[in-house]
Design a protein that fits this description.
The chain is an alpha/beta fold. The chain contains twelve helices and nine strands. The protein has one domain: TIM Barrel (Alpha-Beta Barrel). The protein has helices at residues 17-28, 38-47, 65-81, 99-109, 118-121, 128-140, 160-169, 178-181, 186-192, 213-223, 239-247, 253-267, and strands spanning 5-9, 52-55, 85-88, 90-91, 114-116, 144-146, 175-177, 200-203, 228-229. The chain is globular.
């Protein structure tokens, strides 16, 4: 079996996990299949034969940023102690009083980058405030992981066009465009993002369920197979389901190895070879 890192996961505190998962499903119009708790994430990854994961927390208010980031760091430590390879990004919010100080805290916690979900956070990805954050991330060499895309016209905070503006304005900033660069906007992402920016990378979470294997393979090849990382989007999709959907694409073993683990290690960890 391949060594696998699930590079797109979310979890919630046990006390609010049911409500958080229900709210997520309500926002996107689907039933969330998993609970979203830390223990359930570990169970799902082990059941799928996945050896590690990346946590991507999101803060919907500035007052929760530090608490969420501290929890992510603690959860990584617990997962490693449980025998999994685990990493986390931090989150940030438009109203956080001092981006620089917040990024210092993230670095001290061992968090690898910053995750933003512009739609849930209510801030356009390319707003003036987010450009200020991007400038600081670029200066520090910290990657930015973005939720991208929503087919609904009334929700336009994370469109591929906005991500393209970030990529062009900050060419030394590593930008990961989740969901193959545009959730349910893949034609637009193919036209605007894929293969066009040297600093833009992708994950394939919450994508392959909505297309044929042939289309999924075509889009990943358009991104560049060296630029795509496997992700499930737990709890929205069960990791084992996402893995089966990916393996159905029929890539040769070296490409599978790259997307399932090596690309993550190279793009995010700066390591050329998986251990």
């Amino acid at each position: 079996m391949y060594r696998i890192i699930d590079a797109h996961t979310h979890i919630y505190p046990d006390a609010i996990a049911d409500k958080a998962a229900a709210n997520l499903g309500s926002f996107y119009g689907f039933t969330v299949p998993e609970s979203g708790t830390f223990s359930d994430l570990l169970r799902c990854e082990r059941d799928a034969g996945i050896g590690g994961f990346l946590l991507l927390p999101v803060a919907t208010s500035a007052r929760n940023v530090d608490k969420i980031n501290e929890a992510a760091a603690a959860q990584v430590k617990c997962a490693v102690e449980a025998g999994l390879e685990a990493y986390a990004f931090g989150t940030m919010h438009r109203d956080y009083p001092d981006f620089s100080a917040g990024l210092d805290r993230c670095a001290a916690l061992g968090l690898l980058g910053i995750k933003l979900h512009p739609d849930l956070q209510g801030e356009p990805a390319d707003s003036e405030r987010m450009f200020s954050l991007c400038a600081e991330l670029e200066r520090r060499g910290i990657p930015l992981w973005l939720h991208v895309g929503d087919a609904r016209r009334e929700i336009d905070f994370s469109s591929p066009e906005r991500v393209a503006r970030i990529a062009a304005a900050f060419p030394r900033l590593t930008v990961v465009a989740a969901h193959l660069g545009g959730y349910r906007e893949w034609e637009k992402a193919e036209r605007i993002l894929m293969g066009r920016y040297q600093n833009v990378f992708f994950d394939c979470s919450s994508t392959l369920w909505d297309m044929t294997p042939e289309r999924g393979r075509q889009l990943i090849e358009a991104c560049g197979v060296d630029r795509v990382m496997f992700g499930s989007d737990y709890p929205a999709v069960t990791p084992g389901t996402s893995l089966a959907q990916f393996l159905r694409l029929g890539f040769p073993a070296p490409v599978n190895e790259a997307i399932l683990c090596r690309n993550f290690r190279r793009i995010i960890l700066g390591a050329e070879d998986a251990p």
